[in-house]
Amino acid sequence: MLSFIVTGAKPVSDDVYRNVADALFAESERLITASEKIGLMAGKMIAELEK
């Protein structure tokens, strides 16, 4: 359903389109935060191995 909205295959109101865009943006921010945490964990693990 989401791909249909994003590609324009399923017409929706501007409010719905805005809500989808806002939700996608929030998810991208969450993934950035998670990625940073994973990178820090990996760095610590590598540092432990190199001691």
Secondary structure elements and their pairing?
Blueprint: H1 2-7, H2 14-49
Could you name the key traits of this structure?
51 residues, mainly alpha, 2 helices
Tell me what the structure shows.
The chain is mainly α and 51 residues long. It has one domain. The protein is built from 2 helices and no strands. The model has no long low-confidence stretch (mean pLDDT 94).
In total, the number of domains comes to 1
Average pLDDT figure? 94
Which sequence of SSEs, written as H and E, runs from N to C?
A: HH
**Poorly predicted runs of 5 or more residues:** none
Assign a percent range to the helix content.
over 70%
Shape field: rod-shaped
> Total number of helical segments?
2
Give a nutshell description of this structure:
The protein is mainly alpha-helical and 51 residues long.
